[in-house]
Write a sequence for this structure.
């Protein structure tokens, strides 16, 4: 009689474990499918929406690092469209010496994603190019929350070298740079 009770209890435990494993497999599969669908949607959204944005209307920020306070009192920005300069702006800064990197908003209200920005800080020049918008999701605890969005990226190249940080380090700046014509 005890054998039958133990067999029955063992059978119930196996059924409960099996149902639990099926539920875990379903939840795991659902999460993987949602992530896969979100990645496919992000690729589609990137091609159909984000890659079609050609004008940057939101403020952009860069950071300067390794400069002394007297080198950053006056910073010059040049906007290059094609091979010609079209705008220039001078910004006078009050530097906070406590910070090693100084954050600065770019002075141009609208720029094209194909434009280049030349920054002159101290005696160094930086050529910033390759800006774009990138598809992203807001992620919660169990995956994407809401729809796909286009977010503004950083400059992809600084002085012709790949860079995605937006940080302009003094040592990476060019000393003898020839500005393009107006």
């Amino acid at each position: 009689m005890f054998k039958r009770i133990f067999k029955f209890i063992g059978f119930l435990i196996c059924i409960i474990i099996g149902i639990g494993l099926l539920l875990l497999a379903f939840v795991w599969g659902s999460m993987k499918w949602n992530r896969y669908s979100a990645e496919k949607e992000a690729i589609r959204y990137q091609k159909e929406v984000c890659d079609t944005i050609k004008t940057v209307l939101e403020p952009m920020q860069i950071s300067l690092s390794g400069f002394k306070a007297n080198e950053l009192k006056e910073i010059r920005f040049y906007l290059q469209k094609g091979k010609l300069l079209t705008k220039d702006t001078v910004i006078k800064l009050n530097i906070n010496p406590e910070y090693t990197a100084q954050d600065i908003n770019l002075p141009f209200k609208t720029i094209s994603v194909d434009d280049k920005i030349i920054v002159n800080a101290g005696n160094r020049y930086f050529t910033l190019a390759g800006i774009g918008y990138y598809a992203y999701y807001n992620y919660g605890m169990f995956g994407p929350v809401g729809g796909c969005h286009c977010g503004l990226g950083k400059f992809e190249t600084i002085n012709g070298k790949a860079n995605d940080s937006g940080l302009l380090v003094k040592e990476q700046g060019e000393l003898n740079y020839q500005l393009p014509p107006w």
About this structure: The mean pLDDT is 84. The longest strand covers residues 143-152. Residues 2-48 form the longest helix (47 residues).
